[in-house]
Automatic annotation (TrEMBL):
Any Pfam family: DUF2200
Protein name: DUF2200 domain-containing protein
Organism: Litoribacter ruber
InterPro entries according to UniProt: SP1917_dom_sf, UCP033199
Superkingdom of this protein's organism: Bacteria
Length: 121
């Protein structure tokens, strides 16, 4: 799927700190915990709690966030539709990575088992 350059630019410049509270609210409303959210983020990016907090405090853009991440080798197993886009068809790497994160948060909020969310470690 081809996203527009404007869409990709907007994703790159959005700060993780502006989206993180929405992720947290979404999962907590559904009975999941902050710790579980952090586990999912750490699986995808390699960021521990301290690094995650540093990125929030720095107001890092998603571009910076994913430049510093060590994407899990199984991240490409994250498939499906999120926000109207089929993840595996998104051509822009950064946009695809942001949608990976969105999809993991969505699966967590929907009550999916952690073993399934983290794709067999």
């Amino acid at each position: 799927m081809i996203t527009t350059p404007e869409h990709d630019e907007r994703m790159a410049k959005m700060t993780f700190a502006s989206v993180y509270p929405h992720y947290l609210t979404k999962v907590e409303k559904k009975g999941r915990s902050k710790e579980e959210l952090h586990q999912v983020i750490e699986w995808l990016t390699g960021f521990d709690d301290k690094k995650l907090q540093d990125l929030i405090n720095e107001k890092a853009t998603f571009e910076t966030f994913f430049q510093q991440a060590r994407l899990h080798p199984n991240a490409n197993l994250i498939t499906g539709v999120i926000c109207g886009y089929r993840i595996e068809d998104i051509e822009t790497p950064l946009t695809r990575q942001v949608r990976y994160l969105d999809k993991l948060v969505d699966e967590l909020a929907k009550g999916r088992k952690m073993e399934k969310i983290i794709r067999g470690q």
